[in-house]
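Last lecture ended with a question: if I hand you only a sequence, what can you say about the shape of the protein? Today we answer it with a concrete record. The protein is Aminopeptidase N. Below, first the input exactly as provided, then the predicted structure, then a couple of comments.
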Amino acid sequence: MVDRRILWTSLGGLACIVAACTSPPVPSEPAPAPTHGAAGIGDEYYPEAGNGGYDVDRYELDVRYDPERGQLTGEATVTARATQRLSRLNLDLRGFTVSSVEVDGAIADFAREGGSELVVTPPESLDEGSVFATRVRYEGKPVAAKAGQLGGNGWYRTPSGGAFVFGEPQSASFWYPVNEHPRDKAAFSLTATVPKGWTAVSIGKSGKSTTKEGWTTTTWTEPDPVASYLTVFAVDRFDVETSELADGTPVRNVFAPGADDARDEAARTAEIVEYLESRFGDYPASTAGGIYLDSATGFALETQGTPTYPSGPDVDLLVHEIAHQWYGNSVSVHSWADICLNECFASYATWLWAEDKHGADLDSFYRERVETMHADLWAEPLYDMGAGNEFGAVYVKGPLAVHALRMRIGDESFDELLRRWPAEHANGNASWEEFEDFAERVSGQDLDEFFQAWFRDTERPADEHLHPARPRR
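The predicted structure:
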């Protein structure tokens, strides 16, 4: 024990010495001048997609849609954190008349630029690191779907008079103001009001519906961060079936008029989820199920938790879209050049299903596909394929490349890779280069030449990469 008198005497003397030797305070560096947030997040393929200067935490939407008039009225609150000192910021929004914008409750100036930029100037600059809320009120008839690589991106009308909005790589900006790039994932909630007799559906868990004065309101909440193109809004005279997975995760299958032929496939949702868990690990989404349409969109989309399907889906399509909940949704691309991380592995999931459920010999199937592959597909790279070409080869050449990787590193390392990749990047983003490094760490192999041959080159891989010998155990 130390004598307190000695301690206080020592401290007193020390205080005198410190006081005598203390230098005048150094002036702090002035804060940087506020600057405009960039009108793009920095994706080379889509320079105007997304925006810079902030990171969104959550979207809170309140929309009313009248199918008869085709009119949507919305109020969106976007809560974000400034990543620089901001004098103004951009949101992505296509069409609509914006009536007002507020930042932290104060009226803000706004302007429209180009076809999709909403430029917001708050009354005072926003400090770096500050959390702020931007509220946008808007209304109008949504812009009709635009032709894309897979099909239309944007707003569709249905044969029964309803509507839905989805698409990839952009679709959210067709119905709400958004930082439209998968790199900026955020929580999502929706309060949707539609005329009585119609049903609105979206992603996340649904709350109780209430009807008042001829209008029905339903809430939807997705707490996990979601890439904006994975949100969906659909209105129709849906028939809704609900159940649960074994762990209590809610399952919601909704069927548009005319989509009854999808019921048998939808009934296998829990079976498919359980199977994919055996390959990829625990199911990562807060809900399961699907939205089954009677519309020929040309493609399905892995909207979060509840994929959206066109008319006549088969089981393989369900396997593909549900596999995206791990590969594409929980782990999202850093840039659109990385799309093979989503599509190559979701496509290979149908191979795994065929192998484990139907006894398919994948090595034989692989050899047959390799020998019949058209030269045009060999010429398309699977990584950094160029803007507008993201979906050219990933569905056919992609699963071949994944199977070749499986043969190269062996089943044990491959199975480990399939589970660890989504677990270690859950609710985040990753790039193709990160995946290559990860595969080398898991396998303990140098895979540079293999990845170059299969994913970057524009010709048929050499035999050593096309038919790699499996590692000996």
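Comments.
1. DSSP finds twelve helices and 24 strands in the chain.
2. The chain has a mean pLDDT of 93.
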